[in-house]
Amino acid sequence: MSKKKVLVGMSGGVDSSVAAFLLKEEGYDVTGCTMRLYDYTGIGMEEQNTCCGINDVEDAAQAAARADVDFRVINFMTEFRQEVMDRFTAEYLRGNTPNPCIDCNRRIKFGIFKQWAIDNGYDYLATGHYARKVYKDGRWYLQKAVDDSRDQSYVLYPVTQDTLSMLLLPLGGLIKSTEVRKIAMEQGFVNATKHDSEDICFVPDGDYAAFINRTTNRESRPGEIVDKEGKVLGMHKGAEHYTIGQRRGLGLAVPESVYVLSKDMETNRVTVGPSKDLFSREFKIRDMFWMRPEPKAGESFRASCKARYRQKEEPAEFTVMEDGSVTVTMDEPLRAVTTGQAAVIYDGDLVIGGGTITFI
After folding, report:
1. How many CB atoms lie within 10 A of CB 147?
2. What's the CATH number where 148 sits?
3. Active site residues
4. Measuring CA to CA, which residue among 5, 54, 4 is closest to residue 34?
5. Which of 61, 115, 117, 345 is the least crowded, having the fewest Cβ atoms under 10 Å away?
6. 3 pLDDT band (50/70/90 cuts)?
7. Are residues 39 and 112 in the same domain?
8. pTM for the complete prediction?
């Protein structure tokens, strides 16, 4: 029987490089592939020291050569701009705080990239994400990684049953610091000690407002900072510069620390208040993806919820509404629940569903 063909998405980082090597060792016919997603010069930035730039392509190519796997580069820049960057900008200007990594996974990696793999005769698609999958009661489920400090199941929640059936996640059972980097060093990968990327790849300096203004040719408009009663406390440089829960950079002379509670993009107002006002017990999520059998309207069940990537999941009650959205009632209030972010539902270490936070 011929070897099963697998296409591995290689970003230039250590994780995807080790994933390609491990699959080669297991006997798969492996091709590593780096997606060119955008041109930094087109967004007014230098490419030399940024994520997903030409240096990352070279690192991926060198790792593929060391692992003795085929390598290629595919241009998805138009699709990435439309499906990720433009969506990020539009949501941010609506006052939401989107997670473009989730959109990239859903629409690029497990959308057009997966389809390209199918169209070109690959049996499997693989990534260097830290997560596992398990087949249970006739369905595929995402399972948290063994390395809890690296677990990425949260950003993979929109993966469909069809995608999970052909997805390989070779790092899900490994510890990054002691196992994955050791493998990379033993194999002589140039990226064995390469730092992890923490920022949004197309906003490597973390200045979302500057990116949006630069790419849309708009300018920030100063506006009022108010308390919950509407009293003006000061002025801000533009509502798009602020995120829910932010404390620093407000420039207010007030007797106690205040945090951004909300922002209204239409009125260009930012509302602030004490830390206690950031906590929410109830909120809704929409645009649901289910790995468990889809619950019916009116059904309620208990599970755990995670509303931020670096947050620990906490117990909650979930109630399905007539429109398919889900009302989440936390046992204990969560801090800085933010519209546009993802809320992911866990049953133990299994992902059973998730969606986008729509309002608090």
Report:
1. 19
2. 3.40.50.620
3. 104, 201
4. 54
5. 115
6. confident
7. yes
8. 0.92
